[in-house]
UniProtKB/TrEMBL annotation:
This is ABC transporter ATP-binding protein. It holds the Pfam family ABC_tran. SUPFAM superfamilies: P-loop containing nucleoside triphosphate hydrolases (SSF52540). Residues 24-254 form the ABC transporter domain. Keywords: ATP-binding, Nucleotide-binding. CDD domains: ABC_DR_subfamily_A.
Amino acid sequence: MNLNMPFMVITVGDTMSTKGEAVVSIRGLTMSYGANQVLRGINLDIFQGEIIGYIGPNGAGKSTTVKIILGLVDGFKGQVKVQGEDIAGGGIEYKRKIGYVPETAEIYDTLTAHEYLTFIGEMYGMDFRLVDRKAHKLMALFDIADVYHARIASYSKGMKQKLLIISSLLHNPDILFFDEPLSGLDANSVMVFKEIMTDLAAHGKTIFYSSHIMDVVEKISSRIILINNGQIVADGSFDQLSQKCREGSLEEIFNQLTGFNRHKEIADEFIAVLDEA
Ligand SMILES: Nc1ncnc2c1ncn2[C@@H]1O[C@H](COP(=O)(O)OP(=O)(O)OP(=O)(O)O)[C@@H](O)[C@H]1O
């Protein structure tokens, strides 16, 4: 592992001229919570059909970036455009084209999935019967159709996660933001969801996928963006990043670019503290 260049910026993506207009365009994005400057000048263009693996250490600002794009967080500086529309303009129409699986979600869990999903669908202007039929079919494909009329409070963690995924996709959005979408899913469901992501991109959808599961990000992403200390420190396909960093896995690239190699030392110290009398 080469730790001599922990904070270099690696950008190896194509230029805009080869890909048309950006679906999401971010310029000079900064964001602070009080004295804590979380984002320090993010510049980013995301293009149709890309699966962006958006990675970085805990607290790096991944969820904050997504929430700003979705219009859920105010107080940022810089410019964010979604399909050419500046989100600071106050319009909400662009949100119809977006689906979102948040890292942690508040679901109305006294509702049944039937009630919840038809409510969400109708909020997007869908016909009740259409959303009901689609919701039931999608629940069946995730093997949870039998609880369609059961209260969400009775669901396991993975069942709730499947429900969140379905609710993000019901209205067939063009741009998907998935924040740790695999959380709680069993191995079979992970395989299904990975295929769904690939198919969505092949159908021209754009996916912004934030996760700490490096081997999935490595395999699924057409482009990987790593942020550290509020800045983009790497941007390119896995093959491009691995050639530049001379590392074999995304986990090792992550270690190198975040300047981290103390895992063994920290684990040893952790055990030593547990052993203290
Ligand atoms: N509502 C908030 N108020 C104050 N600080 C916040 C708030 N939300 C996030 N932060 C801070 O912003 C920083 C970035 O948080 P964010 O959730 O964007 O990180 P992340 O990269 O998604 O992390 P993780 O990988 O742990 O999910 C952290 O220091 C966090 O404490």
